Amino acid sequence: MQFCKDCGGVLNLFGKDERELCPVCIQNQRVAPPAPAAPSEEKDGDLLRDTVLSFENGKIVLRSKEGWELWSGPPGVRTELKTIFAQARRIYRIRLRRQRN
Predict the structure, then answer these.
(1) What is the pLDDT of residues 30-83, one digit of tens each?
(2) Which of 22, 85, 91, 100 could be stapled to 4 by a disulfide with Cβ–Cβ 3.0 to 4.6 Å?
(3) How many angstroms separate the CA atoms of 61 and 45, rounded?
(4) Beta-carbon neighbour count of residue 92 at 10 Å?
(5) Which among 35, 36, 27 is positioned nearest to 6, based on CA atoms?
(6) In angstroms, rounded to a whole number, what is the distance separating the alpha carbons of residues 18 and 12?
(7) At CA 97, angle to CA 95 and CA 101, rounded to 5?
(8) 3-class state of residue 93 by DSSP
(9) CA–CA distance, 28 with 31 (Å, rounded to integer)
(10) Which long-range contacts (CB under 8 A, 24 or more apart) does 21-25 make?
(11) Are 1 and 10 in contact, with CB atoms under 8 Å apart?
(12) CA 73 from centre of chain
């Protein structure tokens, strides 16, 4: 006899079942609300919401609301968004820190 690892309900009376959770617990996991974002992620979301993507002098440029160039790249070159955003966050934090000092 096997039991659900979450609620303890019976999974299988006879034989072996590969599942660890019952159908109800599996459904509850799918419907569960997403975890709240960490404070730094919320600030980064604000950063990205206020940025502008433009084409300047033959390159694609991502600028902050302060006018700082956070990322740039040539057109036609494939770059993952997560790479662009990670670099933009890093540069924004550095410039913000320098501005405070």
Answers:
(1) 655 555 655 554 455 567 778 899 999 999 999 998 899 999 999 988 889 889
(2) 22
(3) 18
(4) 21
(5) 27
(6) 10
(7) 115
(8) helix
(9) 5
(10) none
(11) yes
(12) 22
Neighbours of 43 (CB within 10 A): 13
Structure tokens that stand for 2 in this block: 């096997």
pTM higher than 0.90: no
Q: Return the closest-CA partner of residue 12 out of 22, 84, 73, 64.
A: 22
Q: What is the pLDDT of residues 30-43, one digit of tens each?
A: 655 555 655 554 45
C-alpha radius of gyration, the chain, whole number? 24
The pair phi, psi for residue 2, each rounded to 5°, is: -120, 150
pLDDT confidence band for 24 (50 / 70 / 90): confident
Encoded tokens for 46: 């604000």
The residues near 26 (Cβ < 8 Å, ≥ 6 apart) are 19
